[in-house]
Amino acid sequence: MTATHYQVIAHYFARPNQVRAVLALLAELARASRQEPANLSYEFFQNGEDPEHIVILERYVDAAGFERHRDSEHFQRIGAGQIIPLLTSRRVERYEGSAEE
Amino acid sequence: MTATHYQVIAHYFARPNQVRAVLALLAELARASRQEPANLSYEFFQNGEDPEHIVILERYVDAAGFERHRDSEHFQRIGAGQIIPLLTSRRVERYEGSAEE
């Protein structure tokens, strides 16, 4: 079955002494994001070779769903307001298409 | 700049007492995979909320490059031969396209 969706891979690089704080905030942001109507999944992972490198795999019904996530109160408060200031850099990759199940 | 490539997201679910072993084997497989001519990146991550859930983000020049990876001696020996038997399940997602840099 081929399902179409909008897959986001967000790479976050935490300041060395802020890794634990970023992970805790991401858990809070994940819970809120999963409630969004257009969100299909929201999971965050820590690099096995570089603990400061965290990746978020977010899947939405479509690009508009991701934009609504970015405009949401919880992303603005937790993501933009609290997490991003704790990062040295970040990179967001977007894929439209299908993932054969 | 829009670059086209072949992005693979592989979700591995390790047996509860095999997480450390899987991570160590993935480090070995990562080193070998990064030497492949068609490999652009190979990184593995552990879920921040479920340590048994490991994701590999692999990027290749094209689909053929990923197939050559699957046929490689090191994937057959380490991936298929040693890691996969330590998993309860796995899911591989493939995306062709571009990631705006």
TrEMBL record, chains A, B:
Keyword list (alphabetical) reads:
Monooxygenase, Oxidoreductase
Q: Name the InterPro entries for this protein.
A: ABM_dom, AI-2_Isomerase_LsrG, Dimeric_a/b-barrel
Q: Which PROSITE patterns match?
A: ABM (PS51725)
Q: Which Pfam families match?
A: ABM (PF03992)
Task: Recall the GO molecular function terms of this protein's record.
Answer: monooxygenase activity
- Residues annotated as domain ABM: 6-95
Designated name of the protein: Antibiotic biosynthesis monooxygenase
**Organism encoding this protein:** Arthrobacter silviterrae
